[in-house]
Structures are given as structure tokens and as C-alpha cells.
Write a structure and sequence with these properties.
This protein is of the alpha/beta class. The chain has helices at about 1-15, 60-65, 90-95, 110-115, 120-140, 160-175, 200-210; strands at about 45-50, 70-75, 100-105, 145-150, 180-185, 190, 195, 215-220, 250-255, 280, 285-290, 290-295.
């Protein structure tokens, strides 16, 4: 029964997380989009960046550099996509001063189970996917010790096969010249009666218990509060609630705004988003995105 409850919770958490901005085009009848508001005064920390599934274009990225320090950069196809428009753009972005948050798509639980039924274990699937991500990062020219963040879209406590896949992936990356990271939910969800858990906490506990390699954490937590909403006026990184440093992983970045917003947890900051629920880049009313902050202007150390 507990396994069934956890699977249902995972399914609900997936609907809630859906972290990286999709590529659908807003309807023409929607109200004029609202850009992320600018901070009252510039600050060097934390650094502000964004992530989205589709590359916005060279001209947009050149202009957006005045608002952002770093960008998400997919080395695999983003979630739900059959191609990757970021490939081949690293050198151009580096020359324009961008820092990087390097992302690799993970697997949904249903995909892991289907592979398992076909005879591929979660660990073997993870090692195969990690090899693809590592090869892509090399091809893109990312230097040794760059952090590659696995996109763990489903929230809540990990199911056994999810944990085997995720930790198999991070261990495989740790065995390469790169460093492992995970994008996961910092949103508390029900676990045992009367208790809550975040995916990040679950990952950290498993890493500590199994004495695995340290994992860098990219926290998905857009609930207001603690998130400030669609704004470049960020809060301190420790406001996310997941700054605890442990042998299981360190918080490197916080995704504090998602497009579209989740109405049930963003009521208090809803006015910072556009009427259609998206968050837009300042000066670019068609470029919707997710907003991130980090302790470094180059969170993955990918320059």
C-alpha cells in the first residue's frame, strides 16, 4: 500500500514540478506579458540566471546578458523534445560572458519501469544515459570538473527504481572527468502520516547512507513564500530552505520561478507574473522562462 501511495504522490508531484520552461507559444488573445521586474539596485550575489527548453536565439542571448549572469544549457534533448537547439552554442555564449548551468534530461518512473520490463535494469539504463550526457558535454567543449545536473522531474520520495537510476547516473558521472548534480524538488510533500519530505532531502539521505559521491543540488522551489516570484530582485540563497550542507549534497542553485506558474502555491506573488501565468525576460515579451539564482555566476563551472 505504501508503494502505491508513493507512486500516486510521485505522479501528483510530477504535475506540480514540470520545471523547465516549455516551448509552446502563448495565445494571441492573451494579455500583454509582464517581464520579470528588475531589482531596485544591482547586486553581485546571488547571481541571477534562467533556464528554458528552447534556445532563444543569438540576438536575444546577446541582449539578455545585461539582465542575467548564467543560463541553463542542455547537453541532451530537453524533457519532451526530440531535438536540442542549445547544441553548438557554448562557445558563442562563453564569448559573451555567460555562465552555465549544464542540464541533462533524466527518466520518468514509467520509462524506467518499461526499460526494466525489457530487461534493462535501472542502473544499466542510468549508466547508458550518463555516458550519453558525458559524451555530449565533452563534444560541447565543457572543461573537466563541470557539474552536470540530472533533471529529476518527479517529486516526493524516490521509489526504489528511481533511486537506483538517479544514483546510478550520478555515480557514473562521478567516475568521469565531470561532477554530478541533480535538479530536484525542494517542495515538501506528504510522506508518512503527519510528515513531509522533499526529493532533495531523500537524495541526501540516500547518498549519506550509501556513502556515495557528493551531489550538487539545483533546488526547484517556486512556492511563494519562500520564492519571490517572477522578479530579478532575489532573496538570499538560504531562503529556499535547502541550503543545509551535508555529505549528501550542496545547494548550488535555486529555481524560484517557473513558467507557467503554479497558481495553488504562487498566490501571494501572482502579480509578478504575466496574465497568462508565464514569466518573461525583460525586454523580450515572447521569451518565457524559469528564473534561477546561484552562489556563482557560473554555477556548473562550465566556462
Amino acid at each position: 500500500m505504501r508503494d502505491l501511495v508513493r507512486r500516486l504522490a510521485a505522479a501528483l508531484s510530477l504535475l506540480a514540478l514540470c520545471g523547465c520552461s516549455r516551448t509552446s507559444t502563448p495565445s494571441a488573445v492573451e494579455a500583454a506579458p509582464q517581464a520579470a521586474s528588475q531589482p531596485a539596485s544591482p547586486t553581485s550575489t546571488p547571481a541571477v540566471g534562467f533556464d528554458r527548453n528552447n534556445y532563444p536565439g543569438d540576438a536575444a542571448m546577446t541582449a539578455m546578458r545585461s539582465s542575467f549572469a548564467f543560463t541553463g544549457y542542455w547537453v541532451t534533448n530537453p524533457p519532451g523534445a526530440h531535438s536540442n537547439t542549445w547544441l553548438g552554442k557554448r562557445e558563442f555564449l562563453k564569448q559573451h560572458g555567460w555562465g552555465f548551468l549544464v542540464l541533462a534530461n533524466g527518466r520518468l518512473d514509467a520509462e524506467i519501469l518499461r526499460a526494466q520490463k525489457r530487461g534493462t535494469s535501472p542502473g544499466d539504463l542510468a549508466r547508458s544515459d550518463a555516458a550519453i550526457a558525458v559524451a555530449a558535454a565533452r563534444h560541447e567543449g565543457f572543461p573537466p570538473h563541470t557539474i552536470l545536473f540530472l533533471d529529476q522531474e518527479e517529486g516526493g520520495a524516490l521509489l526504489d527504481e528511481q533511486a537506483a537510476y538517479l544514483l546510478g547516473w550520478t555515480e557514473a558521472v562521478a567516475a568521469s572527468e565531470f561532477r554530478p548534480g541533480v535538479y530536484a524538488s525542494g517542495q515538501p510533500v506528504p510522506d508518512d502520516p503527519g510528515t513531509t519530505i522533499t526529493t532533495i532531502d531523500d537524495i541526501r539521505k540516500r547518498v549519506q547512507t550509501q556513502h556515495l559521491h557528493q551531489i550538487a543540488i539545483f533546488d526547484a522551489q517556486d512556492a511563494c513564500p519562500p520564492a519571490p516570484g517572477c522578479t530579478l530582485a532575489t532573496k538570499p540563497l538560504d531562503a529556499s530552505g535547502e541550503l543545509v550542507l551535508s555529505a549528501g549534497g550542496n545547494l548550488i542553485a535555486w529555481q524560484y520561478s517557473q513558467s507557467p506558474r503554479r497558481p495553488s502555491i504562487t498566490r501571494s506573488c501572482g502579480a509578478t507574473y504575466a496574465a497568462n501565468g508565464n514569466c518573461y525576460a525583460p525586454g523580450f515579451p515572447t521569451v518565457f522562462l524559469d528564473l534561477d539564482e546561484a552562489s556563482s555566476a557560473d554555477p556548473s563551472h562550465g566556462r
